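hey
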């Protein structure tokens, strides 16, 4: 059965995807035959070669299978020279694919699924007790948390003054702020003085998504 066009990587993405597959295949010392075997022979070496060289548009499902084989994640989107619309489409497909393949994990609740689908810098990583993480997109909590830090967080029954919490400051982006409560509201404090602290009078039970439990920082 012929693959429908919307299920194929676009012509704009094709060169990037081909190079990405070839670079990672060589990085991990995989031959085309090795990659075909890792894919359970869904595609033969000739077809995989055509994906790498741009002669064929690769189906998204095969591309994501290869991403799992080589542990490729959404961080690749940061350096792609493509239109914002195309990048958004690819990011959404990445997230949807990840969620669909993570459904076998009993801990992927409806609430967690909603978070990773709603906030573009949130991820689900079932590697421990804290399964949700957020990649910081600014330096508002510097010097405690830096831009591009990966912050793990977990929902709490209650939050105390001084807790570092994860909250949506604007739109579909999550941020970290230090929490201070008073009788009629809360203060969300940014550690970097360049950013204003926020005084919130109306509090929804779902406003605070969790408390920071761990941090991962890449040392360059």
């Amino acid at each position: 059965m012929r693959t429908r066009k919307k299920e194929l990587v676009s012509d704009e993405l094709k060169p990037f995807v081909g190079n990405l597959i070839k670079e990672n295949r060589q990085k991990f010392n995989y031959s085309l035959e090795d990659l075909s075997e890792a894919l359970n022979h869904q595609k033969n070496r000739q077809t995989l070669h055509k994906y790498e060289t741009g002669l064929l548009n690769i189906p998204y499902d095969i591309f994501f299978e290869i991403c799992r084989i080589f542990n490729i994640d959404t961080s690749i989107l940061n350096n792609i020279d493509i239109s914002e619309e195309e990048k958004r489409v690819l990011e959404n497909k990445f997230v949807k694919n990840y969620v669909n393949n993570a459904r076998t994990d009993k801990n992927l609740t409806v609430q967690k699924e909603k978070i990773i689908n709603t906030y573009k810098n949130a991820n689900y990583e079932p590697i421990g007790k804290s399964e949700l993480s957020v990649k910081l997109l600014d330096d508002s909590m510097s010097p405690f948390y830096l831009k591009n830090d990966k912050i793990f967080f977990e929902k709490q029954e209650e939050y105390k003054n001084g807790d570092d919490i994860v909250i949506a400051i604007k739109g579909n982006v999550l941020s970290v702020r230090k929490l201070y409560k008073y009788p009629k509201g809360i203060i969300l404090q940014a550690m970097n003085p360049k950013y204003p602290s926020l005084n919130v009078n109306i509090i929804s039970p779902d406003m605070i998504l969790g408390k920071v439990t761990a941090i991962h920082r890449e040392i360059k």
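The first strand starts at residue 122 and ends at 124. The first helix runs from residue 14 to 27.
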